[in-house]
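Hi F.,

I've been meaning to write this up properly since the lab meeting, where we talked about keeping a consistent format for the predictions we share between groups. The idea is simple: the sequence comes first, exactly as it goes in, then the structure tokens exactly as they come out, then a line or two of notes. No screenshots and no reformatting. I'm using this chain as the first example so we have something concrete to point to.
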Amino acid sequence: MIIKNVKMFTPECSFEEGTIYIRDGKIEKTEKAAAERSAAVPDTEKTEDREYGEILDGKGCYAIPGLIDLHFHGCMGYDFCDGTKEAIAEIAKYESSVGVTSIAPATMTLPVAELKRILSVGAEYQKDMERDADKKGTRADLVGINMEGPFISAAKKGAQDPRNIVSCDPGIAQEFLEASDGLVKFIGIAPEEQKDPISFVKEMKDRVNLSLAHTNADYEQAKAAFDAGASHAVHLFNAMPAFTHRSPGVVGAVADSSHVTAELICDGVHIHPAMVRAVFRMLGEDRMILISDSMRATGMPDGRYTLGGLEVDKAGNLATLVSDGAIAGSATHLMDCLRVAVTQMQLPLETAVRCATLNPAKKLGISDRVGTIEAGKKADVVLLDQSLALKLVVKDGKKL
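Output, unedited:
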């Protein structure tokens, strides 16, 4: 396959006009417009091009890597914590259809035994995909699992069930890693709630990314955890103390810890656009990762759904707990979050794409395979027109 006449998102995180050459499910090469052969030569006369099969005219579209969502819960009536292969398959199909080609769904705060079962189903699903390439080609790749709980704070539980919160324990964490067969890439903790959070962080930091998640930690507690080796913050600003001039809290600790990456929900509901712009100036675009935090109601009509066993009402892109009206995850998929970040929050398109592709790929340790459009990477390519409407998804070199 050849995709010509597109504005390619380059490894340098800019756009260049050019052509993408795809063979055997991978990007074989790219050519910038200045290096291309004369446009006066018809495609039918380029014998070497015919070897690539179908030639697509991108008509000036943006060509970006497939998006990577490393924190969301579900869509289309399914949740990863349903703990079934069917749920994962339906989630993966929907995500790829909207241009999200790699996923690391998140777990909720559930009983430890139930979490281990859910993780083991994820591992089994992954093995099934490795055995059946045809199915894999139509679905987003399962590239990890992000555990929000159960080591969190009841004070900042959000839509998590406080009855299932437990203290962090290296033994339990290791059981999670083993149950998932290594798919777990993030484990969240609230350091202020633990007896010895620093020892936990030091023991586990080389096995998995440790996040601060649903935490009421102050600046000093959060900074100590980051200094010990925690390296990620779950949905910055949400489910954590407010960022103020005398109490900078977790956000301030993230700002002062240059190795820490931070998730941001840019759905237009969770964070004010001015704060989104401010945090990008404060942390820099290389540390920011756009996520959707979407729940099972995403892609579904307005109505009542569940998240982590709790009832949630969806109205438009707003999802709230029935019990107290608190915001409960998101009802917006990552591609729409990217559009909101650009059109409503005034982030440059290059920045938003980087934070939804290259940055999460690096954090997940898969940037050798995905996250950029360059030779040797998987041919997961999304075309967006000038209004950022989705025009085409290519997954593993095949049109969806």
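Notes:
Residues 112-131 form the longest helix (20 residues).
The mean pLDDT is 94.

If this format works for you, I'll send the rest the same way.

G.
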